[in-house]
Amino acid sequence: MKKKVLTVLLNVVLASTLFAQEVFDFNAFHSISSNELMEFATELSADKYEGRLSGSPEYLEAAKWCASKFEEWGIQPANNGSYFQYFPNAYSEVNSLGSVVYFNGDEKAYLDFPEDYIPGSNSASGTVQAELVYVGHGITAPELGYDDYATVDVKGKIIILESGTPYTKNDETLAKWSPYAYHRYKFRNAVKHGAAGMIYASKLANPNTVNLEGFVYAHVDTKVVAQIMADAGKDYQQIREQLKNMETPSFELPAEQKVFIRAETKYFPDAQACNVVAMIEGSDPELKDEVIIIGGHLDGQGKMGDVTFSSALDNASGISDIMGAAKALATSEVKPKRSVLFILLGGEECGLYGSKYYCNNPLFPLEKTKMMINLDMVGNGTAFFVSGGKTHSQLFSHFQNANNNFIHREIGASAVSKNYGRPRSDASVFEAAGIKTFGLWTRNSVYPVHYHMPADKTNVLTPEIMEDAAKLLYLGVLGVANDTKL
Ligand SMILES: [Zn+2]
């Protein structure tokens, strides 16, 4: 026992001489292991959690598993004795892969999953077969003098829709287009115009949409869309150029071209999801009122038929890194002076629900929140990147020092840039709430990144950088928590 205390002391002292004022515990630092982080990622990616679709019972099971680990490590619940902060989260269960069939006169082509199509995460259940109308971005914005539906009749037809807005430059004009960038807006606008169904020219699993009665849709690869266009005597490349030039090249396709879509889903409008919230109270009687948040989204893209979207890189990796750092901070002989709050966010894939809910219902005053670091897709690559690092440079110096002294990875950084468009990350929600926020992710990917596809499994994770990410978090957060000059 005595020997252990001595070793700990020696390690703490050693660390302090090597690392200026920022003292840490070598044993805690070295206890972070890639093997254990991969065990966490493998657990979270397991079929039993069905891709952690926010709102689903399986998501809540994954949340419970994470809470049980926090409890095991002596990390306290942060919401009045509970590890969970609940919020409303409607979702749809996709019960089969359904089917998408393309007819061109007498020819008939069955589309393949996942090469040609991915079922709509919030499609209505049912079938639709109809002629096609191309509607570009599907936007009706009278105040901008723009209407993709002006020259076409989509009643009872299947529309072909593009994501995004024709205006893409990140400046004040984009703010005017931003309300039209949301998938939800586009779906509602399509239904308002009488569309019976949709093929979305954007192939990925995407729960960030809305389930509208009778509106059946699927996400289709752009190469299929290009073929459909070619069969109609159109050049898809040229049409996309027209969109970029703010033209509205909408048109009705020849009557012999039809699509059939079958979707089997069940909608749960009153479901709930949660953030997992756990904390280590600061050791300093005054500084403990201030808090540092480590967060990342726990939810994934769910399951479609028998296919689980493990959502391993996005974002079992980030959650595993956070848990590795949490365990190390909990066992660290050097305690954080400020409090540390861990938030495993729900509803990110559905529209940043968990981060928005937290910022509207914070567990600590936002003005006492010194910083937030958000991890999303931190597990495939050889280098780090920190958005916001150049803006919040004093805070970032703790992470840079940690990296330079002990981790030795390439670490890039950018300034916080004002985003005039649709917010795309939990980090942007916290930053907009007035909290100094970093977004940490990995670069120089070693394996292909299968974004929102079934192939995002644990075999595309690089365990070495996950270990380093957790170590970077442990050192950097401890540095910030104990910096009395902040
Ligand atoms: Zn993500």
Q: Provide the gyration radius in Å.
A: 24 Å
Instruction: Quickly name the level 1 CATH class of the largest domain.
Output: Alpha Beta
Strand content: 15-25%
Reported by name, the CATH topology of the largest domain is Aminopeptidase
Low-confidence stretches: 1-10, 13-22
Structural class determined from secondary elements: alpha/beta
Counted beta strands:
24
Looking at this structure, what is the CATH superfamily of the largest domain?
Answer: Zn peptidases
CATH architecture of the largest domain: 3-Layer(aba) Sandwich
Number of domains: 2
Oligomerization category of the chains in this entry = single chain
Q: Quick check: average pLDDT?
A: 94
Bound molecules: zinc ion
Main sheet specs: 9 strands, mixed
**Helix amount:** 25-40%
Task: Quickly count the helices.
Answer: 14
Morphology call: elongated
Terminal Cα separation, in Å? Answer: 37 Å
Defining key terms:
Glucose Oxidase, domain 1; elongated; Aminopeptidase; alpha/beta; disordered N terminus; 2 domains; 24 strands; binds zinc ion; nine-stranded mixed β-sheet
Commentary on this structure:
The longest helix has 20 residues, at 312-331. The chain starts with a helix and ends in a 5-residue tail after the last helix. A hairpin with a 4-residue loop joins strand 8 (140-141) and strand 9 (146-147). Residues 1-10 and 13-22 have low confidence and may be disordered. The strands form five sheets. Strands 1, 2, 16, 17, 20, 21, 22, 23 and 24 form a nine-stranded mixed β-sheet that branches. Strands 4, 5, 6, 7, 10, 11, 12, 13 and 14 form a nine-stranded mixed β-sheet that branches. The protein has a two-stranded antiparallel sheet with strand order 3-15. It is elongated and about 75 Å long. The protein has 14 helices and 24 strands. The protein has two domains: 2-89 and 271-481, Aminopeptidase, CATH 3.40.630.10; 93-267, Glucose Oxidase, domain 1 (3-Layer(bba) Sandwich). It has 486 residues and is of the alpha/beta class. Bound molecules: zinc ion. Residues 128-208 form the PA domain. Residues 1-20 form the signal peptide. It comes from Draconibacterium orientale. One of its GO terms (biological process) is proteolysis. Residues 275-472 form the Peptidase M28 domain.
